[in-house]
Structure formats: C-alpha cells, structure tokens
Request: fold
Amino acid sequence: MKYQLVLQFQGDDEETLEKVVALEDQLIEALGASTLAEVDGHEEGDGSIYVMIETKNPGKVWERIEPLVEAAASEDLEAMAVAYRQRDSEDYTVLWPADYEGEFAVV
Reply:
C-alpha cells in the first residue's frame, strides 16, 4: 500500500479508547477483504487516539468510511481530523475538515 490514512480523535481516556476500538471494528468490516485498504490498528499520543489505515487510494477510502466516522461522532466520539501521507513521507495532506488549520502530525 502506498499511503497511510490517519483518523484523529480527541481524548485518550478509557471511554474514548473503547469507542475508537468499536469504530475500528466497523471499519475493518466495511473495508472487508478489499485490496484497496487495510486497517492497521490504533495509537495513542498527546491527548488523541489515531486509527491507521494502509491504502492505495486515501480519497476513495475516506469517501467509503466517512459515514461511519460521522455516525461515531454523533455518539460523542470527537473526530478532529483525517489526513494521509505517502509511506515514505512525513508530510500529511488533510482531507477533513475542509477548514483545518495548522500542520497535521501523529504524535
């Protein structure tokens, strides 16, 4: 896979982690046996939890999973940003939200 798609959620407490893991399970199911993407797990850092997805096409994968992330956000899981990078780069491109300011990084 050429890209890493990263979903960033606010909080690193136990309740937030449980919600992120539940969403991660939904993402695994939604992406299924796709050759387009594979959920690679989650990481915690600096008050956030990140879900990592390895993919060939980050834009297409985001279109596919955005409804799941939005549904999770409506259940008190605060999505902060969605970004991707080429595997050999440190520079992320933010896909969501459109008005994101600052520099995205996985801490």
About this structure: Strands lie at 3-10, 37-45, 48-55, 79-86, 93-96. The mean pLDDT is 94.
